[in-house]
Amino acid sequence: MKKGTDRAVDGASKGTFKRLAAYIRHYKTLYAGLGIITLVKIGLSLSIAWFLALVTNAAVYGSEQSWPTLLMIGGGILVGEVIVHYADQVLRTKASASIRKDLREDTLNHILRLPAKCTDKHHSGEFLSRMTSDNQAVGEAMGTTLFGLISNPLLALGAFIYLLTISWPMALLCFAMGPVMILIGGLTGKAIRRSAAGQQEAIGEATVYLQDVFGAPSVVKAYGMERRTFTAFLQRSREIFGWEMKSARIQGGSASASAFAGNLMFVGAIVAGAYLVHIGNITVGSMLAFIQLMNYLVMPFTVLPSMWAGMQQGLGAADRIFKVTDAPAETEELLEDNAAVESLQELRLENLSFSYDTEGGNETENEQTHEGKGLKDVTLTAKAGETVALVGESGGGKTTLFKLLLGMYPPQSGRMLLNGEDARQMDLGQQRSHFAWVPQEAHLFSGTIRENIADGKPEASGQEIERAAKMAEAHDFILEFPEGFDTKIGERGARLSGGQRQRIAIARALLRNAPVLLLDEATSALDNESERKVQQALEQLKKGRTTFVIAHRLSTIQGADRIIVMEKGRAAETGTHAELMTLRGRYFDLYQAQLRETQAEHLDTVPVS
Ligand SMILES: Nc1ncnc2c1ncn2[C@@H]1O[C@H](COP(=O)(O)OP(=O)(O)OP(=O)(O)O)[C@@H](O)[C@H]1O
Questions:
Q1: Which residue segment(s) compose the domain that 61 sits in?
Q2: Among residues 18, 159, 200, 394, which one has the fewest Cβ atoms lying within 10 Å of its Cβ?
Q3: What is the CATH number of the domain that holds 53?
């Protein structure tokens, strides 16, 4: 048993229930209706015992009730049962589904507003589990389980009161079995809760693992990872099985102990009832009613432990959901669609500094060990239409600079000025409306090509989308698909080539038409023809815009207005290609190294005749 699981179970507190009660309050009428139906259901159950006594006494002793009256009462009870069961089932499901819907929507609303510092740390599978299996568990707890927990004790109480009217010593004797049942439930309840939580955790881990595997089937195949993947999953699958068996054994033990106690009581009641009839203390009808009522008294105690476990499981799931929704969000509300601003004369960074380690909250430990994880004192100015190239070693901080420009992380010191206005004075949507970002991986969404391009500007007309596709050199290949712009591209664009995906991403950025373009160049991964097309598309995109480009091939950025060599988060060198070559520093070394590589490649490809 993992400690985390213990905490998750014990953490399912009154506070959690209070928070869920706030959701219930939105459906006061529905829950009040369900309360009434529960009472009617209990009344109907008890009336069956009463009816049993009436019919038996009519048969044995000939009572005042005529047979037609008895038939009408029986029919009435039956019709009532049908109506009440239907309403109960539908309304309980409605209650569950309503809570699940609200919670699901609130959870997504919050996840979408979480800052990058939080989303970077969590696996997307964890968020998915909160939205699906945990959501399901909470819904069940707040519907069927909650009303089961209310109606069963009420039914037992009703049966007890009725029993008192038949024979109070017997009623008290039966009720004395209650604590035995509660003891059995208490002994097993916690174990059931723990194994259920362990099971949920194991399922969560397996889901996260499978999500990674299913997300990259080609890598699994290319690296021959099938067996390893299968073996790794077997372990997880068997862990789930182990927890399930543990639950089954505990629940089996609990059920058989409860059944034994229940049967003992049942047999005892029949014998005692028969004796009371024999000595003329009660009628035969009362004895049958007594036996039926005893069922109502015993049954709740047998089902309550597993219902209580279900409630704890639901509260544990709610706790996990609330942990996500309690994480501070970066905005109060979901941002509006942030249409791009029209122009930007100047973007200026002044001594911008940022560290992932201090952002994570463990500054002292990491300050010496992870020097350079972030940005330090970056200062630069980019005017409208200028191109600033970021080059340098892997891990130098180039992507981090993009993240800060986009407001994914706040700078810890220094500032960013957009047309002289401090970005800290703007809301995040406003800040982001200055940028169009072409990430290294295209990050397309399932849906059609049209929908993906339109993500750049949701209200764009068909013509605008086609124009963007033409400028991005994507129009021709799009029309080669039978369904053209309405082609579904598959999960993350699986039906497109790498170059095609990038050109769609470029078309998306073109359509956005923002004054600053952030380009994480990934052309090195493409073949020459694709690269040429993507480069052409990029040239279109850069026209008239301020462009920040992360360049891996120095040959593509020689015309840049400014080249910045990033090293350990600092701008180690800044200048034009010519200036930096004259400087004979890091850029010069990088350039020479790439030149040698290119020449070696060229020599390798010259045919030997
Ligand atoms: N979310 C994160 N949390 C903690 N550290 C991070 C995070 N993202 C990046 N880093 C670290 O910050 C440093 C700078 O990373 P960054 O992605 O900016 O480098 P880069 O210059 O873009 O590298 P590359 O050229 O390889 O893409 C690296 O040491 C990296 O490990």
A1: 15-326
A2: 394
A3: 1.20.1560.10
